[in-house]
Write a structure and sequence with these properties.
The complex is a heterotrimer. By secondary structure, chain A is an alpha/beta fold. Chain A is 41% helix and 21% strand. Chain A folds into two domains: 3-241, Thiamin diphosphate (ThDP)-binding fold, Pyr/PP domains (Rossmann fold); 244-354, Rossmann fold, CATH 3.40.50. A seven-stranded mixed β-sheet of chain A has the order 3-2-4-5-7-6-13, sandwiched between helices. A five-stranded mixed β-sheet of chain A has the order 10-12-11-14-15, sandwiched between helices. A two-stranded antiparallel sheet of chain A has the order 1-8. The longest helix of chain A is centred in the middle third of the chain and has 22 residues, at 220-241. By secondary structure, chain B is α/β, with parallel strands linked by helices. Chain B has one domain: Pyruvate-ferredoxin oxidoreductase, PFOR, domain III (Pyruvate-ferredoxin Oxidoreductase, domain 3), CATH 3.40.920. Chain B is 39% helix and 22% strand. Chain B has six helices and six strands; from the N terminus they run E-H-E-E-E-H-E-E-H-H-H-H. In chain B, strands 2-3-1-4-5-6 form a six-stranded mixed β-sheet, sandwiched between helices. Chain B starts with a strand and ends with a helix. Chain C has a single domain (21-260), classed as Rossmann fold (3-Layer(aba) Sandwich). In chain C, helix 1 packs across helix 8 (185-203) and helix 4 packs across helix 5. The radius of gyration of chain C is 19 Å and the shape is globular. The termini of chain C are far apart. The chains are: A alpha/beta, B alpha/beta, C alpha/beta. Chains in contact: A-B, A-C. The A-C interface holds A 28, 30, 54, 56, 58-60, 62-64, 66-76, 78, 92-93, 96, 100, 201-206, 210-216 and C 46-47, 49, 52, 58-59, 61, 65-72, 75, 78-87, 89-90, 107-108, 110-111. Strand 9 (212-213) of chain A pairs parallel with strand 2 of chain C.
């Protein structure tokens, strides 16, 4: 990626995501229409052919993730994007990819649920990303941008992360980030990266033994060995790519934790609470798997309490509680169904917790 | 500075493009901006809305519960959203379509006969420009030149022939906005 | 005088020496051998990817000595699509059973066929779920007893058998569609001809090819192997007639021979 050749543009989160993917070397896209992320496949269908790539609209999300599986097995940098109900349908395919140790990038522009829900913003697929990804012991490495710029940058970087840990990597955002426009310093498209996955299938002559991409291990010990290898990569990822941002007071009474769009609300809430005389510090994970437990534990040691803000009914808060480990009380401000916690509500809770 | 502006109107009144243009002008002026469409707990009927933040600090939340400024172009948007304007805030209302002052008592109201002016200019699709021009003239938050330049960037080439009408609409609106700042205006 | 002798039969190079796990009398082994012979004859082993699916043939990646991808149940046509879009010159074949292809994977096979994706499907139709112990399949014959149709399949309860070739033959996408039977030696020879045709269609880049092979399952049919072969010929072919439904390679060859002999027919 060429940092020097960025150009500033005013674009939607969806467009920033698509252009981030192309900058990250993605040349294959398989997806199925679903609101609020349709501008991504639309962008890809228009622009992937210009850089020698392939766009294909699949017959379903089930097919899309399996096309991704095939393209990844063939060594390609490949992605799909969807929104909550579509990601539910991809769970099986993700499990196969994790089991087969294959990389891919997927973006989830989360919408209100459960069920068909609505097309409003939500963060209720936190568990789907960090606990889900189908059956078995495995998760998606999960990145949580909170701006159009980060959607662009995180999507571009997700391809390298997926390749490094041979695991599906999810960019977890929401309907607001998808649709909003902000300034974005856009990376130029990169050259198509060489297919350098020694485990990929394809023509090989006599140069190597045959490659088998597989998640079926009938022998229990062999299957456990695969699991240990996967877990070892997760441990490596925790060391190497765990990322977060902090904002606010160095001597906080209240620790505020939020990711994605809710963390934007919390930035404003931290400012407002400060004006009202309560010092707060926001810890905002940029990765939620691996999870930045360390800074949360550190500030929980000092703070009187922690306020966790999410557009879901208590998913992210569980990881915060695990990190806080009882050092201080943890309170949830949660909303669902398309509603996002409001600044005033977060401020009120911060003040209430310290009164 | 921090400007939180909510635009509301009917589909086709140019609410979304108008908002994008304002945010883009803010970006070009070196400020931090966000533009966010449609979100409101009470979106109904054919209303289209967007929220813009323009600031020299961090944008933080792109959603505003009580926007400082609301630019409302039709009666449904006015009745639905005007009561949410911040205390001490500003309502910019399209008097060509809105008759009753819909907000609350603790806010200022700038009436703009936007449809009438647009008809005078000879391009009925410039209602949004008149309204936004009035806001800019009133607050001086963004220059009319900067807004016009942003519009030029965002309009597809084939619509550039409409630029003179749009600039005229921005200027007419700005005059009304500037006049309203005068004592007794 | 061995040097003067022509080799007419040998273990195919494209099969590994792993002992197959199929039941005695099952025709999966025959199908594997025919596919392997075709791969050898076309000299494509080093650029072929086998797609193993879910069902009795789940271990196909152990038996075919090629690169391989194990696919989730029914999704091999989508996986094949992904591989071929990245590597158009790689030869890809999916080895699917009737439950995998015609039940859970119906959407994927129909859409891959409709797109005319350039890969080959070897479709084993033995009218029963073998690996999961003899349940009713979408291709189970009316009246056929299975572990989930213990009184025999009836249309009011479980609907009618699905004819995959006929169904796909309504689409413009497929380039080669044929149904053959793995029963008597003449049928087996025809089956190999169809399989070769299907791979040649892919090598020529003409698009989607599928060979349906009527196969036996003595274990879950409750028959001896010979009774099972008889059942294929006498019962299954009534519901599933043997035919070449589509052969665009032949059409192309026809055009070419017409071009090479311009005077002919004038």
């Amino acid at each position: 990626m060429s940092e020097t050749q960025r150009t500033r543009e005013f674009i939607t989160g969806n467009e920033a995501t698509a252009r981030g993917a192309i900058a990250g070397g993605c040349r294959y896209f398989f997806g199925y229409p679903i609101t609020p992320q349709n501008k991504i496949p639309e962008y890809m269908s228009a622009h992937l052919p210009e850089v020698g790539g392939v766009f294909l609209q699949a017959e379903s999300e089930v097919a899309a993730i399996n096309m991704v599986y095939g393209a990844s097995a063939a060594g390609a940098r490949v992605m799909t994007t969807s929104s909550s109900p579509g990601i539910s349908l991809m769970q099986e395919g993700l499990s196969y990819m994790i089991g087969s140790e294959l990389p891919c990038v997927l973006v989830n522009m989360v919408r209100g649920g459960p069920g068909l829900g609505n097309i409003g913003p939500a963060q209720s697929d936190y568990w789907l990303a960090t606990r889900g990804c189908g059956h078995g012991d495995g998760q998606c490495i999960t990145l949580t941008p909170n701006s159009v710029q980060e959607l662009h940058d995180f999507t571009a970087r997700a391809f390298e992360i997926a390749d490094r840990y041979r695991n599906p990597t999810m960019v977890l955002a929401d309907a607001i980030l998808a649709n909003m426009m902000e300034p974005c310093d856009v990376l130029p498209p990169t050259e198509m990266p060489p297919a350098d996955r020694p485990y990929a299938v394809g023509p090989h002559g006599q140069e190597r033994e045959r490659n088998i991409v597989n998640s079926l291990w009938v022998d229990f010990d062999e299957m456990e060995e695969v699991n240990l290898r996967i877990q070892e990569r997760y441990r490596q990822a925790a060391e190497e790519i765990t990322d977060w941002e902090e904002y606010g007071s160095d001597e906080p009474e209240v620790l505020v934790c939020a990711y994605g769009i809710s963390s934007r609300v919390c930035e404003s809430a931290v400012d407002e609470a400060g004006k009202a005389g309560v010092q707060a510090r926001l810890v905002r994970p940029k990765t939620v798997f691996p999870f930045p437990s360390e800074p949360i534990a550190k500030w929980a040691e000092q703070a009187k309490c922690a306020v966790v803000v999410e557009a879901s009914m208590g998913q992210f808060v569980e990881d915060v509680r695990l990190a806080v480990e009882g050092r201080c009380p943890v309170e949830l401000v949660g909303h669902a169904g398309g509603n996002i916690p409001a600044v005033s509500e977060v401020v009120a809770r911060i003040l209430e917790m310290t009164s | 500075m921090r400007e939180e502006i909510f635009l509301g109107g009917l589909g086709g009144q140019g609410v979304l493009l108008g908002g994008q243009m304002m945010a883009r002008a803010g970006m070009d002026a070196g400020l931090n901006v966000s533009w966010f469409p449609i979100y409101s707990p009470e979106v109904r009927g054919g209303s289209t809305t967007c929220t813009i933040v323009i600031t020299d600090g961090r944008v933080g939340s792109p959603i505003c519960e009580r926007p400082e400024t609301m630019i409302l172009m039709d009666p449904v948007a006015a009745n639905t959203f005007a009561p949410q304007v911040a205390e001490g805030g500003l309502l910019v209302l399209n008097s060509s379509m809105i008759e009753q002052p819909p907000g609350h008592e603790d806010c200022e109201t700038l009436w703009v006969p936007a449809n009438d002016i647009a008809v005078e200019i000879g391009n009925e699709r410039t209602v949004n420009m008149v309204m936004i021009g009035a806001w800019a003239g009133r607050t001086s938050a963004l220059s009319i030149e900067g807004i016009a330049e942003a519009l030029q960037h965002m309009l597809p080439e084939r619509h550039h022939k409409h630029m003179p009408a749009n600039i005229a609409a921005l200027e007419r609106g700005a005059e009304i906005g500037a006049e309203s700042r005068q004592p007794g205006g | 005088m061995t040097t003067d002798m022509k080799q007419v039969y040998a273990y195919p190079d494209a099969l590994t020496e792993v002992e197959m796990r199929y039941c005695p009398g099952c025709t999966h082994g025959t199908a594997h051998r025919l596919v392997a012979e075709v791969i050898d004859e076309l000299g494509i082993k080093d650029r072929t990817v086998t797609l193993a699916t879910v069902g009795c043939s789940v271990y196909a990646y152990e038996y075919f000595d090629t690169d391989a991808v194990q696919c989730s149940h029914g999704r091999a046509p989508a996986v094949a699509t992904g591989i071929k879009r990245v590597q158009p010159d790689t030869i890809v074949f999916a080895y699917q059973g009737d439950g995998d292809l015609a039940s859970i994977g119906m959407a994927e096979i129909v859409h891959a066929a409709a797109r005319g994706e350039n890969f080959t499907v070897i479709f084993l139709n033995n009218a029963v779920y073998g690996m999961t112990q003899g349940q009713m399949a979408p291709t189970t014959l009316l009246g056929q007893k299975t572990t989930t149709s213990p009184r025999g399949r009836t249309a009011p309860e479980a609907g009618f058998p699905i004819r995959v070739c006929e169904l796909l033959d309504t689409l413009d996408g497929p380039a080669f569609l044929a149904r053959e039977a793995l029963s008597t030696p003449p049928h087996v020879r025809n089956a190999k001809r169809a399989i070769k045709r299907a791979f040649e269609t892919q090598v020529a880049g003409l698009g989607f090819s599928l060979v349906e092979l009527l196969s036996t399952c003595p274990t879950w049919w409750g028959m001896t192997p010979l009774e099972a072969i008889k059942h294929v010929d006498e019962q299954m072919t009534k519901c599933y007639p043997i035919a070449v439904f589509r052969d665009r390679l032949a059409a192309q060859e026809g055009e070419q021979s017409a071009e090479s002999a311009p005077g002919e027919g004038e």
